[in-house]
């Protein structure tokens, strides 16, 4: 059997079919993955093969092809991403502002919010920045603005698919929040990367909720925090959104981010979420979004959210 040629296998991936030839019955699934890599460019450790069974279960890489009893031209489906594409989607682009460690900005928050030069910058963003609606704002709904990296998604860890880096209960959280809030996404990256991540996570197509709009790095402004931290960029001040939409204001808006420095311009509206990182270690125990869903539900009926101390949200 070792000298016999193994039947050709058709691998369906990324909308195309690849015929894998030249294998023998004494080769293993690991060898099959290497052959698939030669055809598709997807590394073996990134490949998830669907449609292969051995004794009713998904076979390990050590199982020989001769033990699979496959017929010629058997079609299997592969999930996986080429390394360069995975890096594009899951890693921040080269022009992304450097991620700084969070710092105590209590005093800076008070000073920044109403400084004339920053209010002028915000007005300029209101005039020049375009927000494209994904779905229309709904009458009577509050606004929830969400960061992506380390808030909804671990963008640094390695995985076969983006969904493995998704924060646990993301879709349940968004579905619950959608009942009371319009949902916006903001990120310090370009719109291209925001859309790629949202599509990778299945957020754009989920039937249980809709995003209202997304805001990217072009809406950010620079602020001078003084000699201690210098000039930094902060995510789009909520004043940009409030200037674009009459429905939203400081009383009905809440935003989540893992860095408090992104709340410099709107300290009363920001809730610092615990960062989600090392997904492979933490995704089975992280329940932050479940707890935050309860919190959002509790405060949804309040007329004015700006009077709340979100630092005490857990209590």
UniProtKB/TrEMBL annotation:
Its EC number is 3.1.3.16. Gene3D superfamilies: HAD superfamily/HAD-like (3.40.50.1000), Phosphatidylinositol 3-kinase Catalytic Subunit, Chain A, domain 1 (3.10.20.90). InterPro entries: FCP1_dom, HAD-like_sf, HAD-SF_hydro_IIID, HAD_sf, Ubiquitin-like_dom, Ubiquitin-like_domsf, UBLCP1. GO terms for cellular component: nucleus. Transmembrane segments: none annotated. Keywords: Hydrolase, Magnesium, Metal-binding, Nucleus, Protein phosphatase. Residues 137-299 form the FCP1 homology domain. Its main location: nucleus. Its cofactor is Mg(2+). GO terms for molecular function: metal ion binding; protein serine/threonine phosphatase activity. It is found in: Nucleus. Residues 7-79 form the Ubiquitin-like domain. It is an enzyme of class 3 (hydrolase). Pfam families: NIF (PF03031), ubiquitin (PF00240). It catalyses: O-phospho-L-threonyl-[protein] + H2O = L-threonyl-[protein] + phosphate; O-phospho-L-seryl-[protein] + H2O = L-seryl-[protein] + phosphate. GO terms for biological process: regulation of proteasome assembly. SMART domains: CPDc, UBQ. It comes from the Eukaryota. NCBIfam families: HAD_IIID1 (TIGR02245). This is Ubiquitin-like domain-containing CTD phosphatase 1.
